[in-house]
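Example record used in the benchmark description.
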Amino acid sequence: MSDPMTSLRDRMSVLGLALAQWADRGTARDKAAARRAGSTAVDAIDALLRDLYLLRGRTNVAGVLTARIGYARVSHPRPASRDPDRRAHCRRVRAR
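Model output (structure tokens):
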């Protein structure tokens, strides 16, 4: 799925056409084609769910990575050896 939005639009158009054909199954001259359209609609729904699941996974991964990077910056801003205030604090704590 290279472009999620294009894929979703394509699958939605397939679903729309298949549902329209399936909805007219009562008056359709070709009953077998209407049944196949119902099958195509189910397949399109399955594909849409798969694409949405993959898209959700991509957004969750991005959010988790952003949160972890932010946590790392907050919890470990600079090593003690490079921060003069922290070095002084460590010396005071060791002297006690």
